[in-house]
Every structure is written in C-alpha cells, then in structure tokens.
Amino acid sequence: MSEVFPLISHTLSRQDVLNSRLVCSSWKDSVEDHLQNHPSQFNVVRSFYLVDEVVNPRLLHSPNDLIPRNLNFSWQSWRHENLLSNVPEGCTNPFLNRDISYSEMGCYFENERRAVFTQILERFGSQIWHCQSAMRILEEGSSTNANTLYQLTRSFLLLMPNLKSLDLHFEVSGGSRIDKSEYLMTPEKEELIRSRPLPPLNDLITLKLRGLINPLESAVWQHYGHVQKMRLEKEKLYSPLFQDSLENVHMDRLEELHVGPGTLEDFRRLRNMSVNSPWPLRTLSLDFSIITEDGFELVFRTISHFGATLRHLGMRLDSRFPTSLESLDLPHLETLKLRKRSCSDKGFISSLGFLQPCASLKILELSSICQYSLDSLAPLLLCPLRTLRLELDVDKDLWMALATVSQLGATLRHLELNGQYFTELSSTNRRTHSYPSIDRLTAQTLALPRLETLNIRCVRLVVDSLDFIQECTSLRKLVLKALHTDQIRGSECNKVIQFRGYFARMNESNIWISLPDLEMFELNMRANAPDYKHHEPVPDGFVQDCGVHHIYTRNGYSDVLPPRDPFY
Asked: Could you tell me the superkingdom of the organism this chain comes from (predicted)?
C-alpha cells in the first residue's frame, strides 16, 4: 500500500482518504506516512515549468509543489479554534498531516488566540512536524517590542520539539515602517539569546523566514544551521534580507536555498556570510529587483561562489540582461531557469555566451528570447541538453528556433517552444499579419531522432500537415496550441477548413506507422471562430466561438471543448 497510495491519492475524495485508514493498520500507516511526509511540506523551491510541465503540458506545477486539497487536513487557528472541545479523551494526535498553522493577521483578540494555541501545543505539540506561524510586528502608532516577539516564538517552539519544517512570517501592519535600528543587535538582545536560547529542533529539515528582526533572526541563524532547505523573503522592500551582524554563518548541510526579492547589497552579504565556509548548495533560486549592469557581475560572482556543488539554478528578475556578462563558472550545473517578472519588455536576453562554461547543462528554460539570442545558442551544442523550453518574443521567431534547435538532435528529449501570447492586433494590421504555418517546415527542419515530447504554443497557427516530424522517430507526445488568438480572418478560413479536414482523418494517417512510439497528439485551437455575420453560414465542421480541441491516440480521437484558461 505504501507504493500504491501515492499513485491513486489524487483520485480519492477526502472521505475516501479517511476511510482508507480504517481498512487495516498497514493501510493506516501508509496513508498517514504519505500525508505527513508529502514533498510539498519540505519544498522551498517550486519546480515550475521544468520536466514535469514539458512532459505533461496540462500541469501548472509539479505534483510535489502543492499538497492536493483532498490530502490537506492542516489545522488552522483562524478556522478551528474549538479543537480542544471536539477532541475525544484519549486522542493522542488529531493532526493527520502533523501540520499546524497559526496566524494573528486580521485578529483583534491576539491574547485569546495565543492562549488557545498554547493550550493545543501543550497537549499535542510533540505530535507536530510542520508549523506555519504569521504574526504582526506592530500596529500603527505603537512601538516594536522585538524581545517580546522572540520570547513568544520561543515559547511556541519549546512545545514542538519534533518539528521537521518551520515557516516564520512577521508582518509590519498598519502602514507603519520599522526604524532601521530595530534590525540591529544590541547587548540586551545578545544577552536574551544567551540566557533564553531557542530549542535545538534537531529534526528540522526546512526553514522559511520572512520579515524577521533581531534578536529572533540572529538566534535562528545561530541555532538552526543544520537545516537542509531554506527560504528567505522580505516583508518590505526597504528591509534587508541579511543583517550586518551575520558573518561567517555555518550551514554545513544546506542544499536548497531560495532568496528574494533581493537587492545588490543582499547578494553581497550572502557571499560574505559563506565566504569562509562555503555552503554545499545544490539548488539555488534567486528573485531580485532592478540591478545595474555592474550589479550583474556581483550577482554572477556570488552564484559562482557555490559552483563546486551547484546543480540547479533559477533566476527571476526585472532587469534586462546586459549584452556582455561575466561567464557563470558552474561546471556541474544541470538545470537553469531564467525568467522575467514582466511580460512587457522584449529582448530580455540578448546573448547566451555566459552559459559557455556550463558544460553539464541538461535542462534549460529561457524567457523572452529574441532572434539575436537564438544566434547565440551555439555554445549549448556542446551541452548534453535533454529538455529545452524557450519563450520567444514573437511568433515569427518560432521557425528560426526550430531550425536552430535541430542542431541539438544528439541529446534532446523534450522540447517546448512558446510564441508571444500577448500580441494585440488592431483591425488595420490584422489584415497584413502573417500566420505561422507549420506546413512551411520540412522533415529536415526538425531532425531530432531522440525527441520524445514536442510542445508548440503560439498566438496564431495554421497546420496542414505533420510531415515535418517524420524524422522524430522516438516521438511519444505531440502538442500544438494556438492560444489567446484574435479572430481568424475570413481569407484564412480555407486553410482552417483544410486543417480541420486533415486532422479529422488522423487515425487513417500513416503517421502512426512512421512514428511507432507516438502515443498521443493534442491539437488545441483556443481561438475564437471567424466573426461571421448571422446571414453567413458557418463552414461545415467549424465550431463557432468555442475553438477546437482534439486529442488523438492510436485507438481514436475525442473532441473536447477547451477548458477555461486560469491565466486569462
């Protein structure tokens, strides 16, 4: 059951999950082990849009990023304050997920809520493995008492000695602003840490911190240097991520770190904190604000500081990448995700020369790629790339990308190419807009004999043939999507009708013979149908205003109306 339940859990209702625990002790142990050790409880970096998303384009995130609703039985202070009165005598653990969430946000009776939470922890705290706590630092017009916050947090942690993951969030409420002096250490704060230390929490694996101030922040770094995963976030942009008092911090087990949103000074301090005892990072995720061209050099040096162990790197930023950058000295890097916050700027990345030393790269995701970026893909030809995901500035670059990517045929397994989703055409330029047409491609254009998954998404797409994939003899899954499309011009209707007619006969096509491994082909035209006048007949086989969504397999195909897109 321990191997079966994770595979079927997403199909069960909450009541089915509860009932499965009653079958026998073995089932009970297996279900509870999955609930209490779900990967989402420990993650600090989401694996969005990597291999899982490419292989299964329907997924908006990796299955391990979020715990499904049917498996989430977390206790929440703002919903279940009457827990103690409902728990029967003799119950030793009412928390199926061993998860508890405490929040004072929007609460006008903090003392009462703290008292109830303390009573729950006094009775069941040793059963808790995962805790999320959100508290307010101050209200408008009141003063900060950092020492009180430290002692309150300490009192909670003392009652949860078996924690495996801890999330501490402190918010400056009431539109107030904390004076910078509040972040500094003082002799009084240092004495408080020495005389009343935090509990050791030897089983702690994951630590998430947001908006902490001293003395709690310094105490956390001092006592929990044994964690393996850490997430650091700011509550306010003006607040620092790392205090001046933090130097030579030992994190001998830290493998996964998320930092953001960070400034140039934050990255300088991050490097200084680990300069004498390099952290053994394998995964690093950075989210940072506008940084000058000179600042990028410092960021790259900070990242390269962890090059001896770093395997996975994600960066999300506002600034346009400079044309000339110091190379990333990451010889063991296998995964790189580089995304921008805003979708307005084009040419976000103009050169990929900084990737040349990354000779072990296997998974690459790049956002807002222009044609000049495609010209600089040459260094990647020496990398053993298996998965490539590119978001292109404009649809017309799609064909250039396909021609360039074909040179990666020796190793590439999964390919996703996205055109520009957000193009808005006026009635004037719509008449002259050229639709990308896959029938312009030849079999030699996409000569990728090891490719298993191909996903092409763009604004406009006209397809009359699948001959261009004949050389992709290992292809298992093909997805073609036209998303967020303006209405198709009347002059293009004949192509659309040919396109519909061709794919209506898909199961009679020899493509299933020429591609013996092909398992599924998905065709999704999310566009509105042509805006026909009421007196004009709708062409045969065209569903007006619904678009087209066909899924083909070797045994047949189904018409599926497109689901509502959560992004629009």
From this structure: Eukaryota
The whole-model pTM stands at 0.79
Whether 160 and 123 have beta carbons less than 8 Å apart is answered as no
Q: Report d(CA 105, CA 83) in Å as an integer.
A: 20
- 43-57, 209-223, 310-324, 341-355 — which is least confidently predicted? 43-57
| Residue 545 one-letter amino acid | D
Predicted local distance difference test score (pLDDT) of residue 109: 75
Q: How far is CA 541 from CA 133, 144, 502, 503, 529, in A?
A: 56, 68, 12, 12, 11
- The angle formed by the CA atoms of residues 494, 498 and 500, to the nearest 5 degrees, is 115
Residue 534 per-residue DSSP state: T
CB 30 within 8 A of CB 2: yes
Q: Please give the Cα distance from 62 to 50 (Å, whole number).
A: 8
Report which DSSP code applies to 322: P
Task: Compare 355 and 204 and report the one with higher pLDDT.
Answer: 204
The answer to whether the CB of 326 falls within 8 A of the CB of 301 is yes
pLDDT tens string 316-334: 877 666 656 667 788 899 8
Question: How many angstroms separate the CA atoms of 191 and 215, rounded?
Answer: 10
SS3 content of the chain, % helix, strand, coil (to 5): 30, 20, 50
Average pLDDT score over the chain: 72
CA distances from 321 to 192, 193, 300 (A): 45, 43, 12
Tokens in use for 208?
């998430």
Fill in the amino acid letter for 96: L
Place of tokens 């790269």: 361
Q: Say which residues have a Cβ less than 8 Å from residue 187's Cβ, sequence separation at least 6.
A: none
Number of Cα atoms under 13 Å in the Cβ half of residue 3:
0
Measure CA 332 to chain center.
22
Say how far apart CA 133 and CA 259 lie, in whole Å.
19
∠ Cα 478 483 489 (to 5°): 110
Could you identify the residue written with the tokens 């020496």?
A: 382
Q: Quick: pLDDT tens for 196-237.
A: 999 999 999 999 999 888 889 889 999 999 999 999 887 765
CA 342 to CA 358: how far, in whole Å?
27
- Nearest one of 222, 282, 227 to 253, comparing CA atoms: 227
Domain ranges of the chain: 1-72, 405-568
Distance CA 148, CA 132 (A): 19
